[in-house]
Every structure is written in C-alpha cells, then in structure tokens.
C-alpha cells in the first residue's frame, strides 16, 4: 500500500511481509516503509521478486504518482489515462 504522509511531506510505500509456517502459532512479520520525495517520487519496483505486487504498485502510481523503477506495466489502473493529477495526494 502507499500513502501521503502530509501536505508537502514525502510519499510512502509500505510492504507487509509475512512468513507462515506449519506448526507455528505466530507468523513472522516485517513491515518496510520506503519514503520518496514528493517532487520526484521514485522507488525501485519489487515486481521481479513478488509478481503479486503488480496491482499495488500500479494503484499507488495511479493514485499518488509514485513511480516504480523497472515495473513492466506501470500505467494507470483505476483512473482514465486522460486524468490529470494524483487523487489521493493531500494537496490534490
């Protein structure tokens, strides 16, 4: 997921990683937050490690304008291609 920290502040992309093992009651969990500047929000894509991140990276690009370097299909997924701006930014 991704979010806008505050008007004029960085944008954030959040990765929740969970390891589930049989016979273990409590899964191991890690939360990683990556912050990107508002003026040039670029973050390396993790698509090549986890293909399932495709929708989430495209959605945060579409809604917040975060560009994920080396993502193979980074384009709008919810808004029309003609849409101008990033609707989930606090300064939109």
Structure description:
It is a peripheral membrane protein. Belongs to the complex I 30 kDa subunit family. Strand 2 (11-19) and strand 3 (28-36) form a beta hairpin. The strands form 2 sheets. A 3-stranded antiparallel sheet has the order 1-2-3. It has a two-stranded parallel ribbon with strand order 4-5. The protein has a single domain, classed as NADH:ubiquinone oxidoreductase Nqo5 subunit (Beta Polymerase, domain 2, 2-Layer Sandwich). Helix content is 12%, strand content 29%. It is an alpha+beta fold. The longest helix is centred in the middle third of the chain and has 11 residues, at 54-64. The chain contains 1 helix and 5 strands.
User: What is the CATH homology-level superfamily?
Assistant: NADH:ubiquinone oxidoreductase Nqo5 subunit
Main CATH class: Alpha Beta
Roughly how much helix do the residues carry, as a percent range? Answer: 10-25%
Shape: globular
Task: Using the CA coordinates, give the radius of gyration.
Answer: 15 Å
- Overall residue-averaged pLDDT value: 94
Question: Total number of helical segments?
Answer: 1
Strand content: 25-35%
In total, the number of domains comes to: 1
Order of helices and strands: EEEEHE
Strand line-up in the sheet with most strands: 1-2-3
The largest sheet is: 3 strands, antiparallel
Which stretches are low in confidence, meaning pLDDT under 50 for 5 or more residues running? none
Class from helix and strand fractions: alpha+beta
Under CATH, the topology is which?
Beta Polymerase, domain 2
How far the N terminus sits from the C terminus, by CA atoms, comes to 19 Å
From the 3D coordinates, which CATH architecture would you assign? Answer: 2-Layer Sandwich
How many strands in all?
Answer: 5
């Amino acid at each position: 997921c991704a979010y806008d920290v505050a008007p004029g502040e960085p944008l954030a992309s959040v990765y929740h990683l969970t390891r589930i093992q049989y016979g273990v009651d409590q899964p191991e969990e890690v939360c990683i937050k990556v912050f990107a500047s508002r003026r040039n929000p670029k973050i390396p894509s993790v698509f090549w490690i986890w293909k399932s991140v495709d929708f989430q990276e495209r959605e945060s690009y579409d809604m917040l304008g975060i560009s994920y370097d080396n993502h193979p299909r980074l384009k709008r997924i919810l808004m029309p291609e003609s849409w101008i701006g990033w609707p989930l930014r606090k300064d939109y």
